Fold:
Amino acid sequence: MALPIMAKATAVWLVDNTTLTFPQIADFCGLHELEVQGIADGDVAAGVKGFDPIANNQLTQDEIDRAEKDRKYRLKLKYNAAAEGEQVRRGPRYTPLSKRQDRPASILWLVKFHPELSDGQISKLVGTTKPTINAIRERTHWNIQNIQPIDPVALGLCKQSELDAAVQKANAKKAKDGEVMSDEERRKLVSTEQSLGVEPEAEPALPTAISGLETFSLTGNDDSNADEDDEEELLVDADSLFNLPDAPSADEDEK
Structure:
């Protein structure tokens, strides 16, 4: 529902100059009923000058009279043909002071993971300026060494639906120009060597000394039997080692 300009000042004028109920004024001005009651009690909008909706072509006296007679009737804003199709210009998104230090991290995340987004889209998502975006994109920001990329949705700077809508819009524009990248291509991550253009080193060949290991088996063969015969020939009987010549007898000594 369209609201009148200077809604609170209009509510002050309606409270002071009509017998409309608080719900009727609150519904027309887009305020809470208790806020309208606070205006009537002087606790809210103290010092605010009333804004005449009749003189400013927002209401007619007949509309007010009809609403005063019927407490269930809801006021309707007067149709203005000159305002047809007119859109209110929106300024940059307001970012609370507690989250403004998180904007560089979210900008770096968007630049890194969504390069298809334009500076204007990033500015609307996180409420920043284009010079700041360019400084982070070109890594000339004064604190670029300490900035870590963080999802702006996780930081509460924008909604996931807003981010998805911006990405879809950017992809649609690139698709029209023939420069879109599919989701499958996004999932393909290249290695450091590929990104730097360095060819990986070839795997070293197996040494020739172990090239015959693939024919090794636990079962015996002719070569193994020959080796065993040679080993048996080299074995010496222990008795032969200690078979010393007999000592001469006593009779032989006397001779």
Confidence is low (pLDDT under 50) at residues 187-198.
